[in-house]
Amino acid sequence: METWDAVRARRNIRTYRPEPLETAHLERILEAGRRAPSSRNEQRWDFVAVTDRERLAALSRVWRGAAHIANAAAAIALVVSDEPDRHMWGSIQYDLGQTAMLMMVTAADLGIGAGHAHVEDKELIREILDLPAGRTCTHMIGLGVPGDRPLRPIENPARRPFNEVVHRERW
Amino acid sequence: METWDAVRARRNIRTYRPEPLETAHLERILEAGRRAPSSRNEQRWDFVAVTDRERLAALSRVWRGAAHIANAAAAIALVVSDEPDRHMWGSIQYDLGQTAMLMMVTAADLGIGAGHAHVEDKELIREILDLPAGRTCTHMIGLGVPGDRPLRPIENPARRPFNEVVHRERW
Fold first, then answer.
1. CB < 8 Å to B5, chain A
2. B43/A165 touch (CB, cutoff 8 Å), yes or no
3. Which of A26, A48, B103, B150 reaches 20 to 30 Å from A77, CA-CA?
4. How many domains does chain A have?
5. How many CB pairs under 8 A join A and B?
6. Cβ contact, residue pair A7, B105, below 8 Å
7. In this complex, do B171 and A89 lie within 8 Å of one another by their Cβ atoms?
8. What pTM was computed for the model?
9. If you ran DSSP here, which 8-state letter would residue A155 be given?
10. Is residue A128 part of a domain?
11. Which domain holds residue B107?
């Protein structure tokens, strides 16, 4: 798909068709994430790719808004160091947002929908994914072929108006 | 450009050719950022698009690593609320990373290079961009046609190995 179409077609997908992802597609999405830029190229992230149905069901219980993970074809858990300093934490999270978005655009290009889930119960996800001390998971991305309608460029997304968001030369 | 080519061609560009960006290209990059997803669709960001040469030169002085902004065809300053809470700050920064990456992939698709600059001197950028109280700018993105070689898909990016970053089913 043309990049500009993928950028405009990407939307938050939380219902999925039951079939698994093609292995090559999941690998490409993970590879896109690996390629993301980061502060000093430090790549302060690890990805746990989950396709096992029981484990996906377990992951869906880490937050009330994570139910869609149970029905996803796959989920990618984004794992980082549990950094206490606000500034450092913000820097890690900025980079994590970059890698998540590269994965999501790459998914959209393949016709695969992606839907974020926040992680509320950090101890539960630590158990499910066997995370070592000092690491935490703040976000998961559910993946699957959209259960409703295919991804198509959206003309008018539900966003703040362009001229409100964009300032020229100064605030 | 095909999405997968744009994802693989994107790299950090800090030297730019002198010509300005086409207006339609800058607008498209900003529109990509506007479309980014965010926590509860709160869109906790504003973008200041700068093309004035004197202002770009001023912006290049907000950090020792921001010199490339002086020679960029344009810069986009990412403005957010200066949130003191670590958790909220991390959430804002994650979303900001998502919007930055959508802009950068969209730029790469147009053959336009993008290079991050961190913002160290928050008071200086407040003056330059006339930011209101309570807002801050943490990142700028320099934009321009690459001064060295065009953007082409990179076979082996300088990143941690795939099998180190990617875990299967559990850590």
1. 3
2. yes
3. B103
4. 1
5. 222
6. yes
7. no
8. 0.98
9. S
10. yes
11. 23-147
